[in-house]
Amino acid sequence: MQTTPSASYSVTLRVEYPNQTGVVGKILTTIAEAGGDTGAVDIVRQGKQSSRDITVNARDSEHARQIAEAVDELSEVRVINYSDRTFLAHMGGKIEVKPKVSVKTRDALSMVYTPGVARVCRAIADDTEQAFNLTVKRNTIAVVSDGTAVLGLGDVGPEAAMPVMEGKAMLFKELADVDAYPICLSCTDTEEIITTIKNIAPGFGGINLEDIASPRCFEIEERLQEELNIPVFHDDQHGTAVVVLAAVINSLKIVDKEMENLKVVVNGVGASGSACTKILLSAGVKNIIGLDSKGVVHPDREDLSPMERWVAENTNPERLTGELSDVIVGADLFLGLSVPDVLTVDHLDSMAEDPIVFAMANPDPEIAPEEAEGRARIMATGRSDYPNQINNTLCFPGIFRGALDSRARKMDEKMMLAAAYALADVIPEEDLSEDYIIPGVFDERIVPTMSEAVQEAARESGSARTSLEEEDPLEAPPQ
Question: Looking at residue 176, what DSSP letter applies?
Protein backbone atom coordinates (compact mmCIF):
# COMPACT_ATOMS: atom_id res chain seq x y z
CA MET A 1 0.00 0.00 0.00
CA GLN A 2 1.26 3.46 -0.93
CA THR A 3 2.11 5.31 2.31
CA THR A 4 3.18 8.68 0.90
CA PRO A 5 1.54 10.94 -1.69
CA SER A 6 2.58 10.13 -5.26
CA ALA A 7 2.15 11.68 -8.69
CA SER A 8 0.61 8.39 -9.83
CA TYR A 9 -2.40 9.32 -7.69
CA SER A 10 -2.52 13.01 -8.51
CA VAL A 11 -5.78 14.83 -9.11
CA THR A 12 -6.78 18.30 -10.21
CA LEU A 13 -9.50 19.93 -8.14
CA ARG A 14 -11.34 22.83 -9.77
CA VAL A 15 -12.46 24.85 -6.76
CA GLU A 16 -14.93 27.75 -6.74
CA TYR A 17 -14.80 30.15 -3.78
CA PRO A 18 -15.64 33.76 -2.80
CA ASN A 19 -12.82 36.18 -3.61
CA GLN A 20 -12.00 37.01 0.00
CA THR A 21 -8.73 37.25 1.87
CA GLY A 22 -7.67 34.00 3.46
CA VAL A 23 -9.97 31.62 1.59
CA VAL A 24 -7.27 30.16 -0.67
CA GLY A 25 -5.01 29.69 2.37
CA LYS A 26 -7.83 27.85 4.14
CA ILE A 27 -8.25 25.53 1.13
CA LEU A 28 -4.53 24.73 0.98
CA THR A 29 -4.41 24.13 4.73
CA THR A 30 -7.34 21.73 4.49
CA ILE A 31 -5.56 19.79 1.74
CA ALA A 32 -2.40 19.55 3.86
CA GLU A 33 -4.34 18.46 6.96
CA ALA A 34 -5.99 15.73 4.88
CA GLY A 35 -2.53 14.41 3.96
CA GLY A 36 -2.38 15.75 0.40
CA ASP A 37 0.71 17.19 -1.25
CA THR A 38 -0.21 20.37 -3.18
CA GLY A 39 1.52 21.11 -6.48
CA ALA A 40 0.46 23.69 -9.03
CA VAL A 41 -2.24 26.23 -8.21
CA ASP A 42 -3.62 27.93 -11.33
CA ILE A 43 -6.18 30.73 -11.59
CA VAL A 44 -9.11 29.83 -13.85
CA ARG A 45 -11.32 32.84 -13.20
CA GLN A 46 -10.87 35.88 -10.97
CA GLY A 47 -13.89 37.89 -9.83
CA LYS A 48 -16.47 38.09 -7.10
CA GLN A 49 -16.64 34.32 -7.34
CA SER A 50 -13.22 32.95 -8.29
CA SER A 51 -12.05 29.50 -9.30
CA ARG A 52 -8.68 27.78 -9.36
CA ASP A 53 -7.27 24.43 -10.48
CA ILE A 54 -5.28 22.85 -7.64
CA THR A 55 -3.07 19.83 -8.35
CA VAL A 56 -2.80 17.44 -5.40
CA ASN A 57 -0.82 14.23 -4.94
CA ALA A 58 -2.55 11.57 -2.84
CA ARG A 59 -1.68 8.14 -1.46
CA ASP A 60 -4.30 6.29 -3.47
CA SER A 61 -7.62 6.84 -5.22
CA GLU A 62 -9.66 6.70 -2.01
CA HIS A 63 -7.35 9.22 -0.34
CA ALA A 64 -7.78 11.59 -3.30
CA ARG A 65 -11.55 11.35 -2.94
CA GLN A 66 -11.28 12.10 0.80
CA ILE A 67 -9.21 15.22 0.08
CA ALA A 68 -11.79 16.47 -2.41
CA GLU A 69 -14.59 15.88 0.09
CA ALA A 70 -12.69 17.74 2.84
CA VAL A 71 -12.29 20.79 0.57
CA ASP A 72 -15.91 20.62 -0.56
CA GLU A 73 -17.08 20.71 3.07
CA LEU A 74 -15.51 24.14 3.66
CA SER A 75 -18.03 26.94 4.06
CA GLU A 76 -18.77 28.73 0.73
CA VAL A 77 -16.22 26.56 -1.11
CA ARG A 78 -17.30 24.15 -3.83
CA VAL A 79 -15.33 21.51 -5.74
CA ILE A 80 -16.94 21.83 -9.16
CA ASN A 81 -14.70 19.37 -10.99
CA TYR A 82 -12.42 16.51 -9.99
CA SER A 83 -9.98 14.97 -12.51
CA ASP A 84 -7.63 12.05 -12.10
CA ARG A 85 -4.48 13.24 -13.90
CA THR A 86 -3.25 9.70 -14.61
CA PHE A 87 -6.48 8.90 -16.47
CA LEU A 88 -6.25 12.22 -18.32
CA ALA A 89 -2.72 11.29 -19.48
CA HIS A 90 -4.17 8.14 -21.05
CA MET A 91 -7.07 9.79 -22.87
CA GLY A 92 -6.91 8.74 -26.53
CA GLY A 93 -3.76 6.70 -25.86
CA LYS A 94 -0.22 7.86 -25.12
CA ILE A 95 1.48 7.41 -28.51
CA GLU A 96 0.91 8.40 -32.13
CA VAL A 97 2.48 7.96 -35.58
CA LYS A 98 3.93 10.99 -37.36
CA PRO A 99 5.45 11.17 -40.86
CA LYS A 100 9.17 11.97 -41.19
CA VAL A 101 8.70 13.52 -44.62
CA SER A 102 6.22 16.29 -45.37
CA VAL A 103 3.64 15.38 -48.02
CA LYS A 104 2.21 18.72 -49.14
CA THR A 105 3.10 18.77 -52.82
CA ARG A 106 2.50 16.52 -55.83
CA ASP A 107 6.25 15.92 -56.14
CA ALA A 108 6.49 14.72 -52.56
CA LEU A 109 3.44 12.49 -53.01
CA SER A 110 4.91 10.93 -56.14
CA MET A 111 8.11 10.02 -54.28
CA VAL A 112 6.74 8.68 -50.98
CA TYR A 113 3.75 6.95 -52.55
CA THR A 114 2.75 6.10 -56.08
CA PRO A 115 4.43 5.93 -58.56
CA GLY A 116 7.91 6.40 -57.02
CA VAL A 117 7.46 3.92 -54.17
CA ALA A 118 7.22 1.06 -56.68
CA ARG A 119 10.96 1.26 -57.43
CA VAL A 120 11.75 0.98 -53.74
CA CYS A 121 9.43 -2.02 -53.41
CA ARG A 122 11.21 -3.75 -56.31
CA ALA A 123 14.60 -3.11 -54.72
CA ILE A 124 13.44 -4.77 -51.50
CA ALA A 125 11.83 -7.65 -53.42
CA ASP A 126 15.22 -8.33 -55.04
CA ASP A 127 17.00 -8.17 -51.67
CA THR A 128 14.78 -8.31 -48.58
CA GLU A 129 17.68 -7.19 -46.38
CA GLN A 130 17.24 -3.76 -47.95
CA ALA A 131 14.16 -3.39 -45.74
CA PHE A 132 16.63 -2.40 -43.01
CA ASN A 133 17.74 0.54 -45.14
CA LEU A 134 14.53 1.57 -46.86
CA THR A 135 11.74 1.04 -44.28
CA VAL A 136 10.99 1.66 -40.62
CA LYS A 137 12.20 -1.88 -39.88
CA ARG A 138 15.69 -0.55 -39.07
CA ASN A 139 14.41 1.32 -35.99
CA THR A 140 11.15 -0.36 -35.01
CA ILE A 141 10.34 -2.80 -32.21
CA ALA A 142 7.10 -4.71 -31.63
CA VAL A 143 6.13 -4.79 -27.96
CA VAL A 144 4.03 -7.96 -27.83
CA SER A 145 1.82 -9.21 -24.99
CA ASP A 146 -1.19 -11.45 -24.47
CA GLY A 147 -2.14 -9.61 -21.28
CA THR A 148 -1.83 -12.66 -19.03
CA ALA A 149 0.82 -11.42 -16.57
CA VAL A 150 0.53 -7.63 -16.46
CA LEU A 151 2.50 -5.83 -13.76
CA GLY A 152 1.03 -6.93 -10.44
CA LEU A 153 -2.41 -7.29 -12.00
CA GLY A 154 -2.15 -10.76 -13.51
CA ASP A 155 -4.38 -11.91 -16.37
CA VAL A 156 -6.29 -8.76 -17.38
CA GLY A 157 -6.57 -9.46 -21.10
CA PRO A 158 -5.12 -7.79 -24.21
CA GLU A 159 -7.21 -4.61 -24.11
CA ALA A 160 -6.28 -3.87 -20.50
CA ALA A 161 -2.62 -4.59 -21.30
CA MET A 162 -2.51 -1.83 -23.92
CA PRO A 163 -1.75 1.08 -21.51
CA VAL A 164 1.32 -0.77 -20.22
CA MET A 165 2.55 -1.61 -23.72
CA GLU A 166 1.96 2.00 -24.82
CA GLY A 167 4.02 3.15 -21.85
CA LYS A 168 6.80 0.78 -22.88
CA ALA A 169 6.71 2.21 -26.40
CA MET A 170 6.97 5.74 -24.97
CA LEU A 171 10.07 4.79 -22.97
CA PHE A 172 11.71 3.22 -26.02
CA LYS A 173 11.26 6.47 -27.94
CA GLU A 174 12.04 8.88 -25.12
CA LEU A 175 15.16 7.16 -23.84
CA ALA A 176 16.68 5.56 -26.96
CA ASP A 177 14.87 7.05 -29.99
CA VAL A 178 13.57 3.58 -30.84
CA ASP A 179 10.16 3.46 -32.53
CA ALA A 180 8.05 0.83 -30.79
CA TYR A 181 4.47 -0.24 -31.27
CA PRO A 182 2.20 -2.16 -28.88
CA ILE A 183 0.82 -5.44 -30.22
CA CYS A 184 -1.69 -7.03 -27.83
CA LEU A 185 -2.91 -10.45 -28.93
CA SER A 186 -6.34 -11.92 -28.21
CA CYS A 187 -4.98 -15.45 -27.92
CA THR A 188 -3.08 -17.34 -25.24
CA ASP A 189 -2.20 -20.50 -27.14
CA THR A 190 1.56 -20.89 -27.45
CA GLU A 191 1.51 -21.99 -31.09
CA GLU A 192 -0.91 -19.22 -32.09
CA ILE A 193 1.26 -16.57 -30.44
CA ILE A 194 4.41 -17.90 -32.10
CA THR A 195 2.72 -18.03 -35.51
CA THR A 196 1.28 -14.54 -35.15
CA ILE A 197 4.61 -12.99 -34.18
CA LYS A 198 6.40 -14.78 -37.02
CA ASN A 199 3.81 -13.43 -39.44
CA ILE A 200 4.24 -9.80 -38.35
CA ALA A 201 8.03 -9.98 -37.93
CA PRO A 202 8.95 -8.70 -41.44
CA GLY A 203 7.93 -5.18 -40.40
CA PHE A 204 10.10 -5.04 -37.27
CA GLY A 205 13.78 -4.99 -36.37
CA GLY A 206 13.18 -6.73 -33.04
CA ILE A 207 10.52 -8.28 -30.80
CA ASN A 208 10.10 -7.32 -27.14
CA LEU A 209 7.94 -9.92 -25.38
CA GLU A 210 6.14 -8.49 -22.37
CA ASP A 211 3.84 -9.70 -19.61
CA ILE A 212 3.24 -13.21 -20.96
CA ALA A 213 2.53 -15.74 -18.23
CA SER A 214 4.95 -18.50 -17.28
CA PRO A 215 5.67 -21.15 -18.45
CA ARG A 216 4.43 -20.19 -21.97
CA CYS A 217 6.82 -17.26 -22.08
CA PHE A 218 9.87 -19.56 -22.02
CA GLU A 219 8.85 -21.67 -25.01
CA ILE A 220 7.62 -18.66 -26.98
CA GLU A 221 10.92 -16.83 -26.60
CA GLU A 222 13.03 -19.92 -27.26
CA ARG A 223 11.13 -20.86 -30.41
CA LEU A 224 11.11 -17.33 -31.80
CA GLN A 225 14.84 -16.95 -31.16
CA GLU A 226 15.37 -20.08 -33.25
CA GLU A 227 12.88 -19.34 -36.01
CA LEU A 228 13.28 -15.58 -36.58
CA ASN A 229 16.27 -13.64 -37.90
CA ILE A 230 15.73 -10.62 -35.64
CA PRO A 231 16.40 -10.33 -31.89
CA VAL A 232 13.67 -11.55 -29.53
CA PHE A 233 13.90 -10.40 -25.92
CA HIS A 234 11.56 -11.31 -23.06
CA ASP A 235 12.04 -8.26 -20.89
CA ASP A 236 10.45 -9.72 -17.76
CA GLN A 237 13.22 -12.32 -17.78
CA HIS A 238 16.30 -10.80 -19.31
CA GLY A 239 15.74 -7.11 -18.63
CA THR A 240 15.60 -7.86 -14.93
CA ALA A 241 18.59 -10.18 -15.18
CA VAL A 242 20.80 -7.61 -16.93
CA VAL A 243 20.06 -4.91 -14.34
CA VAL A 244 20.52 -7.33 -11.43
CA LEU A 245 23.93 -8.39 -12.74
CA ALA A 246 24.99 -4.75 -13.17
CA ALA A 247 23.96 -4.05 -9.58
CA VAL A 248 25.85 -7.11 -8.34
CA ILE A 249 28.98 -6.09 -10.24
CA ASN A 250 29.03 -2.68 -8.59
CA SER A 251 28.05 -4.04 -5.17
CA LEU A 252 31.04 -6.38 -5.20
CA LYS A 253 33.36 -3.44 -5.82
CA ILE A 254 32.11 -1.94 -2.55
CA VAL A 255 32.20 -5.09 -0.39
CA ASP A 256 35.40 -6.35 -2.04
CA LYS A 257 34.18 -9.81 -2.95
CA GLU A 258 34.52 -11.92 -6.11
CA MET A 259 31.79 -13.53 -8.19
CA GLU A 260 33.20 -17.04 -7.90
CA ASN A 261 33.26 -16.87 -4.10
CA LEU A 262 29.66 -15.77 -3.58
CA LYS A 263 26.86 -17.71 -1.97
CA VAL A 264 23.64 -16.45 -3.55
CA VAL A 265 20.10 -17.25 -2.45
CA VAL A 266 17.41 -16.60 -5.07
CA ASN A 267 13.93 -16.55 -3.56
CA GLY A 268 11.47 -16.95 -6.44
CA VAL A 269 12.66 -18.88 -9.51
CA GLY A 270 9.94 -18.00 -11.97
CA ALA A 271 10.61 -16.12 -15.21
CA SER A 272 12.71 -13.35 -13.67
CA GLY A 273 14.40 -15.46 -11.00
CA SER A 274 15.48 -18.19 -13.40
CA ALA A 275 16.86 -15.63 -15.88
CA CYS A 276 18.78 -13.91 -13.07
CA THR A 277 20.15 -17.30 -12.04
CA LYS A 278 21.34 -18.01 -15.59
CA ILE A 279 23.10 -14.69 -16.05
CA LEU A 280 24.79 -14.90 -12.63
CA LEU A 281 26.09 -18.36 -13.53
CA SER A 282 27.36 -16.97 -16.84
CA ALA A 283 29.12 -14.16 -14.96
CA GLY A 284 31.02 -16.66 -12.79
CA VAL A 285 28.89 -17.27 -9.70
CA LYS A 286 29.21 -20.92 -8.68
CA ASN A 287 27.01 -21.32 -5.60
CA ILE A 288 23.37 -20.38 -6.12
CA ILE A 289 20.44 -21.83 -4.16
CA GLY A 290 16.96 -21.27 -5.56
CA LEU A 291 13.67 -21.41 -3.68
CA ASP A 292 10.01 -21.37 -4.61
CA SER A 293 6.95 -21.17 -2.37
CA LYS A 294 7.55 -24.76 -1.20
CA GLY A 295 11.20 -24.36 -0.28
CA VAL A 296 14.56 -25.11 -1.86
CA VAL A 297 14.42 -26.41 -5.43
CA HIS A 298 16.51 -29.57 -5.83
CA PRO A 299 16.53 -32.50 -8.27
CA ASP A 300 14.69 -34.86 -5.93
CA ARG A 301 11.54 -32.75 -5.95
CA GLU A 302 8.85 -34.05 -8.31
CA ASP A 303 6.66 -30.93 -8.33
CA LEU A 304 8.96 -28.62 -10.31
CA SER A 305 8.08 -26.79 -13.52
CA PRO A 306 10.48 -27.24 -16.46
CA MET A 307 12.26 -23.98 -15.64
CA GLU A 308 12.48 -24.82 -11.93
CA ARG A 309 13.83 -28.22 -12.96
CA TRP A 310 16.57 -26.48 -14.94
CA VAL A 311 17.45 -24.34 -11.92
CA ALA A 312 17.48 -27.39 -9.63
CA GLU A 313 19.83 -29.31 -11.92
CA ASN A 314 22.24 -26.45 -12.56
CA THR A 315 22.53 -24.84 -9.11
CA ASN A 316 22.71 -25.82 -5.43
CA PRO A 317 26.02 -27.70 -5.68
CA GLU A 318 25.75 -28.94 -2.08
CA ARG A 319 22.23 -30.29 -2.78
CA LEU A 320 20.76 -28.45 0.20
CA THR A 321 17.10 -28.87 1.13
CA GLY A 322 14.70 -27.13 3.48
CA GLU A 323 13.38 -23.58 3.76
CA LEU A 324 14.85 -20.09 3.45
CA SER A 325 16.09 -20.07 7.04
CA ASP A 326 18.06 -23.27 6.34
CA VAL A 327 20.03 -21.88 3.35
CA ILE A 328 20.33 -18.15 4.06
CA VAL A 329 23.06 -18.81 6.66
CA GLY A 330 26.37 -17.51 5.33
CA ALA A 331 24.83 -16.10 2.15
CA ASP A 332 26.53 -13.08 0.58
CA LEU A 333 23.56 -12.06 -1.58
CA PHE A 334 19.82 -12.45 -1.15
CA LEU A 335 17.97 -11.93 -4.40
CA GLY A 336 14.21 -11.74 -3.94
CA LEU A 337 11.73 -11.93 -6.80
CA SER A 338 8.88 -13.33 -4.79
CA VAL A 339 6.45 -11.97 -2.19
CA PRO A 340 6.52 -9.39 0.62
CA ASP A 341 7.91 -9.94 4.10
CA VAL A 342 9.59 -13.34 3.64
CA LEU A 343 13.02 -12.07 4.73
CA THR A 344 13.47 -11.25 8.41
CA VAL A 345 16.09 -9.44 10.47
CA ASP A 346 17.09 -12.83 11.90
CA HIS A 347 17.80 -14.00 8.35
CA LEU A 348 19.98 -10.94 7.78
CA ASP A 349 21.89 -11.54 10.99
CA SER A 350 22.72 -15.06 9.80
CA MET A 351 24.12 -13.94 6.45
CA ALA A 352 27.81 -13.45 5.69
CA GLU A 353 29.67 -10.25 6.53
CA ASP A 354 28.57 -7.23 4.48
CA PRO A 355 25.37 -8.86 3.18
CA ILE A 356 23.81 -7.63 -0.05
CA VAL A 357 20.01 -7.65 -0.24
CA PHE A 358 18.03 -7.14 -3.45
CA ALA A 359 14.40 -7.28 -2.30
CA MET A 360 12.53 -6.76 -5.56
CA ALA A 361 8.96 -7.87 -4.88
CA ASN A 362 6.60 -5.10 -5.98
CA PRO A 363 5.04 -3.03 -4.61
CA ASP A 364 6.11 -4.36 -1.20
CA PRO A 365 9.61 -5.87 -0.96
CA GLU A 366 10.66 -9.08 0.77
CA ILE A 367 11.90 -6.90 3.62
CA ALA A 368 11.38 -3.17 4.13
CA PRO A 369 14.60 -1.13 3.77
CA GLU A 370 13.87 0.42 7.16
CA GLU A 371 14.05 -3.03 8.77
CA ALA A 372 17.24 -3.94 6.93
CA GLU A 373 19.02 -0.71 7.86
CA GLY A 374 22.14 -1.37 9.89
CA ARG A 375 22.15 -5.04 8.93
CA ALA A 376 22.35 -5.11 5.12
CA ARG A 377 25.50 -3.43 3.80
CA ILE A 378 23.78 -2.80 0.45
CA MET A 379 20.02 -2.71 -0.06
CA ALA A 380 18.16 -2.49 -3.38
CA THR A 381 14.48 -2.77 -4.29
CA GLY A 382 12.26 -2.41 -7.35
CA ARG A 383 10.74 0.81 -6.01
CA SER A 384 11.51 4.35 -7.06
CA ASP A 385 11.02 5.79 -3.56
CA TYR A 386 14.13 4.04 -2.20
CA PRO A 387 17.78 4.20 -3.35
CA ASN A 388 19.10 1.59 -5.78
CA GLN A 389 15.96 0.91 -7.81
CA ILE A 390 16.45 -2.16 -9.99
CA ASN A 391 14.20 -1.39 -12.93
CA ASN A 392 13.96 -2.99 -16.38
CA THR A 393 13.84 0.51 -17.88
CA LEU A 394 17.59 0.65 -17.26
CA CYS A 395 18.04 -2.15 -19.79
CA PHE A 396 15.58 -2.49 -22.65
CA PRO A 397 16.09 0.90 -24.38
CA GLY A 398 19.88 0.59 -24.53
CA ILE A 399 20.10 -3.09 -25.36
CA PHE A 400 17.63 -2.74 -28.25
CA ARG A 401 19.37 0.43 -29.45
CA GLY A 402 22.54 -1.63 -29.77
CA ALA A 403 20.74 -4.59 -31.33
CA LEU A 404 19.06 -2.39 -33.94
CA ASP A 405 22.21 -0.44 -34.77
CA SER A 406 24.15 -3.68 -35.29
CA ARG A 407 21.14 -5.14 -37.15
CA ALA A 408 21.46 -8.21 -34.98
CA ARG A 409 19.91 -11.51 -35.98
CA LYS A 410 19.35 -12.53 -32.36
CA MET A 411 19.84 -11.35 -28.78
CA ASP A 412 22.53 -13.69 -27.50
CA GLU A 413 24.17 -14.21 -24.12
CA LYS A 414 27.25 -12.18 -25.02
CA MET A 415 25.08 -9.17 -25.84
CA MET A 416 23.22 -9.43 -22.53
CA LEU A 417 26.42 -9.80 -20.52
CA ALA A 418 27.91 -6.83 -22.37
CA ALA A 419 24.81 -4.79 -21.56
CA ALA A 420 25.12 -5.60 -17.85
CA TYR A 421 28.81 -4.71 -17.62
CA ALA A 422 28.22 -1.52 -19.62
CA LEU A 423 25.39 -0.50 -17.29
CA ALA A 424 27.64 -1.07 -14.29
CA ASP A 425 30.42 0.98 -15.91
CA VAL A 426 28.13 4.02 -16.26
CA ILE A 427 29.02 4.82 -12.64
CA PRO A 428 32.78 5.39 -12.17
CA GLU A 429 34.15 3.27 -9.34
CA GLU A 430 35.11 6.34 -7.30
CA ASP A 431 31.47 7.48 -7.35
CA LEU A 432 29.99 4.22 -6.08
CA SER A 433 28.42 4.04 -2.63
CA GLU A 434 26.03 1.79 -0.74
CA ASP A 435 23.13 3.98 -1.90
CA TYR A 436 24.41 4.37 -5.47
CA ILE A 437 25.19 1.04 -7.12
CA ILE A 438 22.99 1.57 -10.17
CA PRO A 439 22.29 4.73 -12.22
CA GLY A 440 18.88 6.37 -12.36
CA VAL A 441 16.61 5.60 -15.30
CA PHE A 442 17.02 9.10 -16.76
CA ASP A 443 20.83 9.03 -16.74
CA GLU A 444 21.73 10.04 -20.31
CA ARG A 445 24.95 7.99 -20.21
CA ILE A 446 23.13 4.66 -20.11
CA VAL A 447 21.86 4.21 -23.67
CA PRO A 448 24.99 5.24 -25.60
CA THR A 449 27.27 3.26 -23.27
CA MET A 450 25.12 0.14 -23.42
CA SER A 451 24.42 0.44 -27.14
CA GLU A 452 28.11 0.61 -28.03
CA ALA A 453 28.91 -2.43 -25.86
CA VAL A 454 26.01 -4.45 -27.28
CA GLN A 455 27.01 -3.65 -30.87
CA GLU A 456 30.57 -4.77 -30.21
CA ALA A 457 29.33 -7.98 -28.57
CA ALA A 458 26.99 -8.67 -31.51
CA ARG A 459 29.88 -8.30 -33.94
CA GLU A 460 32.10 -10.60 -31.86
CA SER A 461 29.43 -13.29 -31.54
CA GLY A 462 28.44 -13.14 -35.20
CA SER A 463 24.90 -11.93 -34.50
CA ALA A 464 25.45 -8.61 -36.27
CA ARG A 465 24.76 -8.14 -39.98
CA THR A 466 28.15 -6.50 -40.45
CA SER A 467 27.98 -6.65 -44.23
CA LEU A 468 24.95 -4.39 -44.26
CA GLU A 469 26.92 -1.65 -42.51
CA GLU A 470 29.05 -1.32 -45.63
CA GLU A 471 26.18 -1.17 -48.11
CA ASP A 472 24.78 2.03 -49.52
CA PRO A 473 21.09 1.76 -50.45
CA LEU A 474 21.57 4.61 -52.91
CA GLU A 475 23.84 2.37 -54.97
CA ALA A 476 21.06 -0.13 -55.61
CA PRO A 477 20.49 -0.45 -59.36
CA PRO A 478 17.55 1.61 -60.67
CA GLN A 479 14.38 -0.40 -61.23
Answer: H
